[in-house]
Amino acid sequence: MKSTIFIICSLFISIFSFGQTTETFETESHGSTSFTDNGVVFNILSHVNTYDIQGNYPNTGWSGTANDNRYIDNSGTGNQSASSSFSIKTTSNLFKVNRFWIYAAASNLTLNVTGTLTITGKLSGVTKFTQTKTTGFATSLGTTNGYTLIDLTNLNGQNYSNIIIDQLQITAGGNYQYLALDAFTWVKDSNIVLAANEVKSSTKEPSIYPNPTSGSLTIKATDNTKFEVYSQSGQLVRTIEARKGVNETDISELPKGIYIVKSSSESYKIIKR
Q1: 134: closest CA among 84, 171, 107?
Q2: What whole-number distance in Å separates Cα of residue 150 and Cα of residue 98?
Q3: Residue 29: which H helix or E strand, with range?
Q4: How far apart are alpha carbons 35 and 109 in whole angstroms?
Q5: Are 147 and 138 a contacting pair, CB within 8 Å?
Q6: Partners of 222 in the beta sheet?
Q7: Which of 22, 25, 34 lies closest to 180 in space, CA to CA?
Q8: With contact defined as beta carbons under 8 Å apart, do 83 and 173 qualify?
Q9: Rounded distance between C-alpha atoms, residue 138 and residue 117, angstroms
Q10: 147 burial class (0-12, 13-18, 19+ CB within 10 angstroms)?
Q11: Helices (H), the chain
Q12: How far apart are CA 190 and CA 245, in angstroms?
């Protein structure tokens, strides 16, 4: 009995930890505005001040357990300004954020100043969550090399670690002008973001109609084909197994909106009204 319980617990641990990875930027190039982790390319977008990979100051980062050498920061900015802001964004995958570490300071790297940090998660440009941290920042180097843990499993009493996004935006306020981010722990979501150029238009007879539809769909398949229905956020919401010929199906249970119906060879934008 004990061994059975142990096996079940181990399976649960494996399921929930699958896909989680921590990027410490140690293999990334100094000055780069992108990084790759677990096969996913993330872009570093500068909104206020200029952010990129910093690799010129060894032992000034924090891996979550020890000092390290590389991280994202805005030290290359000539005149750092308040409300400094940047994003980590990918256009090829969706992800969830577990935690990361932030060095928040004045432009001269002084930690003992007051400020705020706003963490925002977005999906296809739509804000999925936003919270502002106002207290609990490191005010000295201490045991974490001056970095503060931002834990999305309990951010201002809320859990945001299970929300799927494609962009994480960090914005400083108050007297925080310098930001450094390290030990970015995230989970790769299995679904991909469907780019606009994946939706094909054609002058031949449509394979899926009517469009718009209130629910009923006719699918003309040249072979036995699996069609996947994705929401605008890239979430798989329905799978349709179509046989060669004319197939009738229904998506009445789905909310009104725009969906992508995708096979291995074609994609169609469908409006559900």
Answers
A1: 171
A2: 9
A3: none
A4: 24
A5: yes
A6: none
A7: 25
A8: yes
A9: 13
A10: buried
A11: 2-17
A12: 31
- HSE at residue 75, side-chain half, CA atoms within 13 A, is 18
- Cβ–Cβ < 8 Å for 95, 38: no
Tokens of 102: 């932030």
Residue 131 tokens read as 């919270």
3-class DSSP state of 271 = strand
The per-residue pLDDT string of the chain (273 residues; one tens digit each, 9 = 90 and over) reads 444 343 334 333 333 434 689 999 999 999 999 999 988 899 999 999 999 999 999 999 999 999 999 999 999 776 677 789 999 999 777 899 999 999 999 999 999 999 999 999 998 888 999 999 999 999 999 999 999 999 999 999 999 998 999 999 999 999 999 999 999 999 987 554 444 444 444 434 458 889 889 999 999 888 898 888 888 767 788 999 999 999 999 999 999 888 888 887 777 888 888
Tokens of 68: 């390290």
Query: Rounded to two decimals, what is the model's pTM?
Result: 0.66
The pairs formed by 72-77 with CB atoms below 8 angstroms and a separation of 24 or more are 72/25, 72/44, 72/180, 72/181, 72/182, 73/103, 73/178, 73/179, 73/180, 73/181, 74/46, 74/49, 74/50, 74/178, 74/179, 75/178, 75/180, 76/31, 76/50, 76/52, 77/49, 77/50
